Amino acid sequence: MVQETYLITGAGTGFGKGIALGLAEQGKKVIAGVETMSEVSALVKEAKEKEIEIQVEKLDVTDPADRERAWTWDVDVLLNNAGISEGGSLVDIPEERLRNQFEVNVFGPILLTQKIAKAMVKKQRGKIVFMSSVSGLMADPLSGPYGGSKFTLEAFAESLSKELQEFNIQVSTINPGPYLTGFNDREFEAWRTWRDNPEERIFDYTQLAFPYEQFDPEELIKEAIEVMTGATNDYRNVIPKAMESMIKKRQKELWDKKTDENLGERHEMVQKSIDIEPATTPTKGIVNKIKDKL
């Protein structure tokens, strides 16, 4: 049997890196796509130190030349993991930052997927996985730019799954909850790159932080690898699974929401953004309690 080739984008850090190395440790043939040449060098060095065989390639999903080179690779399983998080109110975020959010999280991955999917169609087999988010299923204040990109990705993934089913190509999503990789906290630091007038902002971003306690990412990496390898064939994969009930409750609430309710009151998630410290993890004694609440 021919060994499958796995392509993981955004493999220089976080989930992507953990998944790429984890698959390679299992003996899978992995192409780790990273954004910059410095990340290529760093990941090659780390893999050598761990005695892991892995192919590392520069792959900025927003770079047409990088995408064209990636189309020459024979890919059986694609994980569209590359992404960024631009936090901030939708009335404050500068236009160029909002557009960049969608270039990286939506347009780059979809354009990369197009010709890889066509190659899979010719082979009549393949799998495409999108690293979405729980933020693609429910929207929080101050995360509208990021959530909007993930909601869009959810729609694209659903459409693609229906379009490609006749060609024997599987499509699925992974929807991580709050895991401590630095990604979530960077979302609430993105305002530092804005070129605007701070006095015109409606929020003081120096006082805000990611409003969820965050968990060890090893759990997600393990379960994401199961999605990639086919150990599970669920279309939607919320991790941790305990968050599913919270998401469904939040989605149902929108059907009953009134436009004039709670006007003049600060939203509870905005208040939590003010109250919580960055990179907060749940204390050991209340981890299960928090997961049960989720």
TrEMBL record:
Signal peptide positions on this chain: none
Q: Which UniProt keywords apply?
A: Oxidoreductase
Which chain regions cross the lipid bilayer? none
* PANTHER family per record: ALCOHOL DEHYDROGENASE
Q: Write out the similarity annotation.
A: Belongs to the short-chain dehydrogenases/reductases (SDR) family.
NCBIfam families in the cross-refs: PRK09291.1 (NF006776)
Name under which the protein is recorded: SDR family oxidoreductase
